[in-house]
Design a protein that fits this description.
five-stranded mixed beta sheet, 24 strands, about 20% strand
């Protein structure tokens, strides 16, 4: 019987399936077992059921079939068969390669064993019953557990279940017996305590203990109370009854004081009430009724509160008169200030307040003095209001002038102000002259602003047309919004519907454009996340992942490995990672007047000029590119948003804003074309410039082509180069891991090492690249991986030396070699050997 053609499981008493070694199958053919046979070829499941398999075991058959299905996702059951013990068909026995005689012999042997086990169970049950009868519950539980362990030998789940129920019953009986024992002990203790309280004449404590004894007998002991204890409880009952009679007499005496005390409180005779309270509390000294005592304590508290309230009321009357005097004094002071400030409305306000306050006083002298003062003030106020008549005319003219200005009728407004200025002929009105002159300046200023808004409105209507033609939807939205705002200020309300319609249309286009960009960005990030365990991605890099059908790009892959690698390698011409050399920049600027422009530029990224240092050595290789903008307006730029996109094949080493390191870093967003740096610059003066400079380093760029079944996955990414301990020496490490669910066959990897470097492959140290080609973008190093096992990875490590440093190194080596040779010709072997040693040491540093 082959393990590849059949799966065999048996069922245990817990309902779990256990896989059976086919070589030991005969041992499992016993009357208490249930065995499952799954035949791969036929997809049939046979269930063999021993004649002594318990009811509980049989219940587990359907769930067990589900577990078999879940244990192996290749299992599919087309038909079920049940085979009872001793009813095995010849066909079934042939399938499992067992002889019926062997099975019968095994069954007979097990039956003898089973009889002995049940005899052992029967003996244990006798011992268990004896223990439970005499109240030895722990010993009975131990025997029940021994029965369970013995029943497990013959898979008798019914016996196991019965014994588990018995254990639970014994544990309940044990708990009840323990509680009764505890109750008996507690009653004995409480009986002594009850006798003690009766002896010490403590009726309340004695009554509490007696109630607890009665409760224990009722709820736990559940037997009649013994005669001696019953007599003691009767004695306590009589004792408590006598105590209650005494307490009732005390309560009746103190209750006679309730009405007299209430009358004293009502008439505010607090001294008499206090005396009656003293008599009550003298009676309560013999009372044990805490509730009664608390009630009288509450009444005493109420008396104290009423007394305190009355005293506070008298104090408040005194304070109220003091407060009235204070308010009268303050109001007089405010009236004086209002006259000094010529605020006659305030004078009337405070005078009315004074009339109101004086009505609250109960002092006759205060009332008379206040009435005299009010009469004097009213006479003075009548005189001052004569001047207000002229002030009213001036105020009316100012309001009409303001109304004209609000209607944009600035000429009428200015004429009204000039006429009002002629009204200022009295010394008391001189304060208005400055105000009128200020209004004249304000209206002239508004007139000038209005004219400028008209000019801006006309200019923006042309700009919006240009924005639409250039598909500058975001800028068009802002300019349309400004046009609508200006239309409201410039009396061009009839233009609003037109530009509202344009605004709605460009907003829809902008939102659609933005949504598409967000969806593309999300798709790129999801693809990059899906391969994060395949390649290591440096910060600031978004790998590009494309999936193609192999048939679309190559037709069928050749079965020959070499030909297949050539097929895949040919895709590099069209699918190779792109090396970009331009920075693209978009600027959206908004002037103080509200005009918005969008500027788009493309700038070539150039290698820095590398003048020699003072020692004749060249500076490290680097690149730079400048972005920014010049203010094209005649007024301030309120806000400029600059979005620069740096290609992924460059790493940013330093950024300066107007020659300085920026305090706040720009927001960085990974897009399809590169890393976008989002700058927000505010308050740029006319003709002023913003200069953003990026210092860059080239990255090593990589293309990975790998076939997955009928699909082709192409990954394009970039990796930083890291400075090593020597000037001009760098290291780049690129890892590729097979985290797919199968062996990879036929993977093409191409790395583009930047120009201006001499490089050496450090890893793998036992494999050479399949090809190396020099192009303008750099050195194209191709690796053909014919096979990569699952969960295996490959590391490609390059050591790069800048070309200028390599040339310096060659010159130094040549000079040191010549110097060593000259020493050798002079016969100075030690000096020559030392110089050759220095030469080798220098080379070792770059190893």
């Amino acid at each position: 019987m082959s393990e590849n053609t059949i799966l065999i499981y048996k069922l245990n008493t817990e309902g779990n399936i256990i896989e059976i070694d086919p070589t030991k199958l005969l041992d499992e053919f016993i009357s208490v077992n249930i065995i499952f046979f799954y035949f791969w070829d036929e997809k049939h499941l046979y269930v063999w059921i021993g004649q002594n398999a318990g009811k509980e075991m049989r219940k587990y058959i359907p769930p067990a079939e589900e577990k078999i299905l879940k244990s192996n996702d290749r299992v599919r059951i087309l038909r079920h068969f049940t085979v009872d013990q001793n009813q095995e068909s010849r066909e079934f026995l042939e399938k499992i390669h067992l002889d019926k005689k062997d099975i019968k012999k095994r069954s007979d042997d097990y039956s003898k064993y089973r009889i002995s086990v049940y005899q052992e169970i029967q003996d244990l049950q006798v011992e268990k019953g004896s223990n439970s009868m005499v109240g030895k519950f722990d010993d009975a539980i131990i025997k029940a557990r021994e029965i369970i362990e013995t029943a497990k030998k013959v898979n008798d789940a019914d016996v196991i279940e019965e014994e588990e129920r018995f254990i639970k019953e014994m544990e309940v009986n044990k708990a009840i017996a323990e509680k009764r024992k505890e109750a008996s002990n507690k009653i004995a203790s409480l009986t002594e305590l009850l006798q003690s309280h009766i002896t010490s004449k403590d009726p309340l404590e004695a009554h509490t203990v007696a109630d607890e004894i009665r409760t224990l007998y009722t709820t736990l002991i559940k037997r009649a109370i013994p005669g001696t204890l019953k007599q003691l409880l009767f004695k306590e009952e009589k004792f408590y009854e006598s105590f209650r009679h005494q307490q009732d007499e005390i309560k009746a005496k103190v209750n006679k004081f309730v009405h007299p005390i209430d009358q004293d409180i009502e008439t505010q005779d607090f001294a008499d009430a206090k005396e009656k309270f003293q008599q009550v509390f003298e009676l309560l000294k013999d009372s044990k009724d805490e509730t009664l005592i608390q009630e009288w304590q509450a009444k005493q508290k109420y008396l104290d509160e009423q007394k305190e309230s009355w005293e506070k009321e008298q104090e408040e009357i005194r304070k109220r008169e003091e407060e009235i005097a204070r308010k009268i004094s303050e109001l007089k002071a405010e009236i004086t200030k209002a006259f000094e400030a010529k605020d006659y409305e305030q004078v009337q306000f405070y005078l009315a307040g004074l009339e109101s306050v004086k009505e609250d006083t109960t002092k006759k002298d205060v009332l008379e003095q206040t009435q005299t003062y009010s009469s004097e003030i009213q006479e003075k106020l009548a005189h001052m209001l004569l001047i207000d008549t002229k002030v009213e005319k001036i105020t009316t003219n100012l309001a009409e002038s303001n109304q004209f200005a609000n209607q944009k009728n600035y000429n009428e407004s200015l004429a009204k102000l000039e006429a009002t200025l002629e009204l200022v002929t009295l010394p008391e009105l001189e304060e208005y002259r400055e105000k009128i002159e200020s209004e004249i300046l304000r209206v002239k200023g508004e007139k000038e602003v209005f004219q400028k808004r008209l000019q801006t409105f006309d200019k923006l209507t042309q700009t919006v047309v240009e924005n639409q033609a250039k598909l500058q939807w975001n800028v068009a939205i802002q300019n349309c919004t400004k046009i609508i705002e200006l239309a409201k200020d410039c009396d061009k309300l009839d233009e609003i519907p037109k530009y509202q319609a344009i605004l709605d249309a460009v907003t829809e286009k902008y939102n659609r454009q933005k949504q598409l960009a967000l969806e593309e960005q999300e798709a790129l990030l999801q693809k990059a996340k899906a391969i994060e365990n395949i390649i290591e991605v440096d910060e600031g890099v978004l790998p590009m992942v494309d999936d193609f059908a192999i048939s679309d790009l190559l037709g069928d892959l050749d079965a020959d490995v070499d030909n297949m690698m050539d097929q895949l390698g040919s895709l590099l011409e069209t699918q190779r990672v792109e090396i970009k050399t331009d920075l693209s920049s978009k600027s959206v600027i908004r002037s103080a007047s509200g005009e918005v422009l969008e500027l788009n530029t493309t700038t070539n990224i150039k290698q820095d000029d590398s003048p020699a240092n003072g020692d004749g050595h060249q500076k490290p290789i680097s690149f730079s590119v400048e972005s920014g903008l010049d203010n094209p307006f005649d007024d301030f730029i309120e806000e400029a948003i600059i979005e620069d996109i740096i290609p992924y094949n460059f790493e940013i080493s330093e950024i300066t804003l107007n020659g300085e390191i920026p305090i706040e870093k720009p927001e960085q967003i990974l897009l399809k074309d590169g890393m976008q740096l989002h700058w927000v610059v505010k308050d740029i003066a006319p003709k002023e410039s913003v200069k953003i400079n990026y210092d860059l380093k080239r990255r090593v760029s990589r293309t990975i082509i790998l076939p997955l079944e009928d699909q082709l996955k192409i990954i394009k990414t970039h990796t930083n180069v890291h400075q090593l301990h020597l000037e001009g020496l760098y290291d780049a490490q690129l890892k590729f891991a097979n985290q797919f669910k199968s062996v990879l066959r036929g993977v093409v990897i191409e790395d583009i090492v930047p120009q201006f470097y001499v490089f050496e492959v450090k890893q793998p140290d036992n494999i050479n690249p399949d090809s190396q080609l020099e192009q303008n973008a750099g050195s194209l190093v191709k690796w053909n991986i014919t096979q990569l096992e699952q969960d295996h990875s490959m590391l490609h490590r390059y050591q790069l030396l800048e070309i200028f440093r390599f040339e310096d190194l060659k010159i130094s080596i040549d000079q040191m070699s010549n110097a060593a040779f000259e020493e050798l010709e002079k016969g100075k072997l030690g000096a020559s050997l030392q110089k050759y040693s220095d030469l080798m040491k220098l080379l070792d540093e770059y190893k």
